[in-house]
Amino acid sequence: MNQDDSKAIHDATAENPRLYSILKGESMNLINFIVWLSAGAVIGWFASRMVKAEHRRPHNPLPDETRSSEKS
Predict the structure, then answer these.
(1) Phi/psi at 42 (nearest 5 deg)?
(2) Per-residue pLDDT at 3
(3) How far apart, in whole angstroms, are the C-alpha atoms of residue 17 and residue 12?
(4) pTM higher than 0.70 for the full model?
(5) Are 30 and 23 in contact (CB under 8 A)?
């Protein structure tokens, strides 16, 4: 965006403050959406790593579990 474009936008928003608030609100909604989407991606990535680590761990039955399975 060159200087003439930004001056035209400034002039248009100065004449119509409602237009400025609409443009500002739309950009904030987009930024908010991107932030939440990124946060969800990070949480999902972390959860998948936890699940993969849990599957790699060997499952050792507790001593009580071994005795109860032998009795039945």
Answers:
(1) -65, -45
(2) 64
(3) 9
(4) no
(5) no
